[in-house]
């Protein structure tokens, strides 16, 4: 062995040590608890701990092994999100441009999560990129739903399709798609009722709308502030209706930050955009690396 190699080996021996299973589990238990307190779903935390314990046992790490483990936790979480996103993250503008017209987006989610406002933000984004947009209110159940979406339609200068309360929600979606096809509109954005996600009648209604409209994408809107209920919603909507992607509303106000990880883990669907404020322009592409860095700064 050369002198340089011998010196390098000596430095490594005195400045690193192999991690024992006991030490790994102690550190991971600590990080696991902190992640749970940040609203990361318990099943994800358990899977993360198992994966890292297997990866780390016997590995030589710097004597400040807690920092080394934290770095590996960051890497593992980022890798998980990137896998969930797939090869290419869904860009709704690009998808609308290359789609057969009209590009159809069906938005689902419980009341109060910011679904209608999120629809307005997506409509604004598409319009700002030169695409024509038609809004449709298939929420014929909640009092004020038509008026709420109508306010956004007027503010954005967009046409809207709606019917009287109590009408068949699927017929509103069908009429909107028919009008868009006839008038050459690029994209149709369909709002839906958001009674509790455990309401089987609502789920049946959503399934009918989806069957009639045949959306290009079904998007679940989740309130980032709802904590662990976010992934309960993802479970129910995934099993009953199905969706292709998630938009997290009120992301800027979420001091805990675990909702994005939890929803992606439980549904195996990507978070594609996050709401970052009250303005129509406050919609941002989701960045997994930035997100994980921010989350780990809390733990």
Q: What would your notes on this structure say?
A:
With 299 residues, this protein is of the alpha/beta class. It has two domains: 3-85, SRP54, nucleotide-binding domain (Four Helix Bundle (Hemerythrin (Met), subunit A), Up-down Bundle), CATH 1.20.120; 92-287, 3-Layer(aba) Sandwich (Rossmann fold). It contains twelve helices and ten strands. The chain is elongated, with a radius of gyration of 23 Å. The model is unreliable at 1-15 (pLDDT under 50).
Tally of individual helices: 12
Distance between the termini: 43 Å
Q: The biggest beta sheet, please?
A: 8 strands, mixed
- Strand adjacency order, main sheet: 5-4-6-3-7-8-9-10
Q: Helix proportion of residues, in percent?
A: 40-55%
What count of structural domains? 2
Task: Look at the structure and name the CATH superfamily of the largest domain.
Answer: P-loop containing nucleotide triphosphate hydrolases
